[in-house]
């Protein structure tokens, strides 16, 4: 399978967890991920939180957030992406690390999203979680690259 097909499946999973699984013909897994996404999204009030965050009403976004439910979302989201990507074929050793690190740091960002200020700005559960997820993916890429080079050298 060529890289373009794997990336296509990854991008569909970014759109909605489960879509990449449908492209991989993993229908039960895809339906499960979509159902979990809707349950968590609804229970955490994620769409409302996103609207408040985009409007700059971070205090209201924090107040509206059901953190007990939203804590599941980063792992579900990153798992959906990784699973669709890996099922696309020919993954390399340690290629899961950007997804794992993205999920981990996104969750850490979510935990601190009601308190942590960056440059004096409270970013809240959407922006801080996304920022930490990007840092996590970046860190995972760096670690993956280092480990790939280590394997090649020795």
Characterise this structure.
The chain crosses the membrane at residues 31-54, 66-84, 96-114, 126-147. This is Membrane protein. Keywords: Membrane, Transmembrane, Transmembrane helix. It comes from Gordoniibacillus kamchatkensis. With 154 residues, this protein is mostly helical. It has one domain. Helix content is 75%, strand content 3%. It has nine helices and two strands. Strands 1-2 form a two-stranded antiparallel sheet. The two termini are 28 Å apart.
Concise account of the structure shown:
Helices cover 75% and strands 3% of the residues. By secondary structure, the chain is mostly helical. It comes from Gordoniibacillus kamchatkensis.
Strand and helix map with partners:
Blueprint: H1 3-15, H2 19-23, H3 27-44, H4 46-54, H5 58-64, H6 67-70, H7 73-87, H8 97-111, E1 117-118, E2 121-122, H9 124-153
Antiparallel strand pairs: 1-2
